[in-house]
């Protein structure tokens, strides 16, 4: 069931990609904003209450819907899983931007590449050099692949046997709430930060291991061990260090932004990032996706045999 739902959702998402600005996401974000306005009194417990109010009803609908439909027909339960996976995963959400930037750089259209990158990341890109655009594109692609594919897939598979698509829904909701409430000096958002950090712990390491297996294993592991802690966000550092080592490319380093030079740690190993490495980065992500699909297939087969 899990592997079939995954394959169908990935195929559907490739044929008709869904935007992260779709009505369901926007409705959830508006609800999160309303909860913050009404409940944020500057205390940690208010953030806990708001998180539970935002997430628990959504999980209840997801789980009850799966149980009821699965009792009527296995195929209806499968369709329910495919629907929620389609809504929560988003390989095309980043691969489309990645492809557009790569094409623009190959055509020496730096302005176009900067514009696509700015729309994707929300960062200032007007002063970036071509190599800096390529470097930031690889970094954003690695992080988005984790958020929209690998972590969502991990939690779907982990809970699918009992709760259908609830794991994928839980992870996507946790991501959205952390984006809205977390990452700031505010007690209200600390619970959202803590939940996402907990949910990320295992899939971050499995994803990094996948990059190592699908690329240069020794360099990926060495960069992971020696460089991940230098990045501001340790989980992101693990992903970027492993991907950079697997590709044999240097990430991080300085960026020309906001009329100054933004200094960042060097992460990865090998040649400086350039547009020539963008196809290799896409290939690494795809190989990792196929590895995960193969693992899920074996897991499903083992369950079926048992």
Q: How does this structure look, described?
A:
The chain is mainly alpha-helical and 306 residues long. It has one domain. The chain is 75% helix and 5% strand. It contains 12 helices and 5 strands. It has helices at 2-15, 23-39, 44-72, 74-88, 91-106, 110-121, 130-163, 166-181, 190-214, 217-227, 234-247, 278-305; strands at 249-252, 255-257, 260-262, 266-268, 271-272. The strands form 2 sheets. A 3-stranded mixed β-sheet has the order 4-1-5. Strands 2-3 form a two-stranded antiparallel ribbon. Helix 3 runs antiparallel to helix 8, helix 7 crosses helix 8 (166-181) and helix 10 (217-227) packs antiparallel against helix 11 (234-247). The longest helix is centred in the middle third of the chain and has 34 residues, at 130-163. The radius of gyration is 20 Å and the shape is globular. The two termini are 15 Å apart. The model has no long low-confidence stretch (mean pLDDT 90).
Describe this structure in a few short sentences:
This protein is mainly α. The protein has twelve helices and five strands.
List strands and helices in order, with pairings.
Elements: H1 2-15, H2 23-39, H3 44-72, H4 74-88, H5 91-106, H6 110-121, H7 130-163, H8 166-181, H9 190-214, H10 217-227, H11 234-247, E1 249-252, E2 255-257, E3 260-262, E4 266-268, E5 271-272, H12 278-305
Parallel strand pairs: 1-5
Antiparallel strand pairs: 1-4, 2-3
SSE succession: HHHHHHHHHHHEEEEEH
Helix content: over 70%
Provide the gyration radius in Å. 20 Å
Strand content: under 5%
Low-confidence stretches: none
Q: Categorize the overall geometry.
A: globular
Task: Provide mean pLDDT, rounded.
Answer: 90
| Total strand segments | 5
Number of separate domains: 1
Distance between the termini: 15 Å
Tell me the number of helical segments per DSSP (H or I, 4 or more residues long). 12
Q: What is the makeup of the main sheet?
A: 3 strands, mixed
Structural category: mainly alpha
How would you describe the oligomerization state of the chains in this entry? single chain
List the strand order in the largest sheet: 4-1-5
């Amino acid at each position: 069931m899990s592997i079939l739902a995954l394959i169908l959702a990935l195929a559907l998402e490739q044929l008709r990609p869904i935007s992260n600005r779709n009505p369901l996401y926007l409705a959830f974000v508006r609800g999160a904003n309303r909860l913050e306005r009404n409940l944020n009194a500057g205390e940690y417990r208010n953030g806990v209450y708001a998180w539970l109010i935002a997430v628990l009803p959504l999980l209840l609908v997801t789980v009850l819907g799966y149980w009821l439909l699965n009792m009527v027909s296995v195929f209806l339960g499968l369709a329910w899983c495919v629907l929620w996976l389609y809504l929560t995963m988003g390989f095309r959400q980043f691969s489309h931007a990645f492809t557009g930037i790569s094409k623009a750089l190959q055509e020496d259209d730096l302005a176009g590449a900067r514009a696509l990158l700015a729309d994707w990341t929300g960062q200032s890109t007007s002063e970036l050099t071509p190599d800096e655009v390529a470097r930031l594109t690889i970094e954003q692609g690695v992080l988005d692949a984790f958020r929209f594919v690998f972590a969502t897939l991990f939690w779907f598979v982990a809970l699918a046997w009992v709760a259908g698509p609830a794991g994928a829904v839980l992870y996507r909701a946790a991501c959205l709430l952390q984006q809205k409430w977390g990452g700031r000096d505010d007690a209200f958002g600390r619970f959202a930060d803590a939940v996402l950090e907990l949910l990320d712990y295992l899939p971050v390491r499995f994803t990094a291991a996948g990059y190592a297996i699908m690329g240069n294993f020794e360099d990926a592991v060495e960069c992971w061990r020696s460089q991940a802690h230098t990045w501001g966000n340790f989980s992101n550092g693990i992903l970027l260090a492993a991907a950079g080592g697997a590709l044999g490319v240097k990430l991080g380093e300085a960026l020309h932004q906001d009329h100054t030079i933004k200094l960042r740690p060097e992460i990865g190993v090998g040649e400086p990032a350039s547009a020539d490495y963008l196809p290799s980065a896409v290939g690494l992500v795809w190989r990792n996706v196929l590895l995960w699909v193969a693992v899920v297939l074996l897991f499903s087969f083992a369950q079926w045999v048992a």
